[in-house]
Amino acid sequence: MRLLLILCFLVFSHLGFATSWAESTVDDPIVKGKTCNVMEPLSYGGYIYQWPSKYDQVFWPYTDAQGIWFCESSGYLSFMSDFENLSEVEIEKVKQYLSVNRLKHPSTRQMVEMLESINALRSFTPEYRNSLTRVYARWHQEFGDLDKSRKYRKAAYDQIQEFLKQDLSQDKKIEYLYLAANYSRHFDGVEKSDEYIQKFNLEVNKIDDPELSGYVKYLSQLIKDTQYIGLGGEFEPAFPEESL
Prior knowledge:
This protein has eight helices and four strands. The chain is mainly alpha-helical. A two-stranded antiparallel sheet has the order 1-2. Strands 3-4 form a two-stranded antiparallel ribbon. The longest helix is centred in the middle third of the chain and has 18 residues, at about 145-165.
C-alpha cells in the first residue's frame, strides 16, 4: 500500500534532500517495436513527504516533470506508474486521440494538459482519479494558473465528500478527512474545516492497527497546519512569523 510506505521513509531515510534520476529506455506501448527514452528514479527519501504538495497528499515523482514519460515515436505520454498495462481498448482510444493531438516536443505544461486528456480515456478507479485530480491542481498552481488549480481542487473536494459517505478502510478514511479539512478551509471556511478536524481526531483515536501508526502520526502532525490555510489564493498555509 503506497500510503504505508510513508512510515518506512520517515523513519529510515537519512539521505540528502535531493532526488536523482538516470536515463533509461522502455518499450512504446502504442507503437510496437519502438522505444522511448525516459528517466527513472535512482534515489530519494522520506523528505519527499514533507514538500508542500503534502497538503494535497500529492507526492514526488508525480510533481516532477521527469516522472512524466514521453514517447517521441507515438506522442504517447503518462506518469511512469501508469505507463504500461494499457488494455487494447485503451490503446485504440489513445491512438485515435494522438492522431489529432500529437505533439513532438511538448513543454511541461503541454505534457500535463495532454496527460489530463489521455488519462480521461483510461480505466482508473474513482479513488485513483481523485488523486490524479489533486496532482493536476498542484501542477496548475505551479504554472501560476490559480483558477484552474482551484477548479481541480474543488472537483477533488466534492468527490472526497461523497467518498466519506461510504464504508472506507481506516487509512483511506483518515486521508480523506485530512484532505476535507484542508479543502473546506480553502472553499468553505473555518467552521466546516474544524468539523472535519474533529472527525479526523475521533477517527484516529479508533485506530489500533500497528501498521497504520506511522501514517496516523504523520497526518496528525500535518493537520496542525490546516488552521493556516486560507480561503482562495494559493493552496499553502500562511504561517504566522513566530511559527517559522
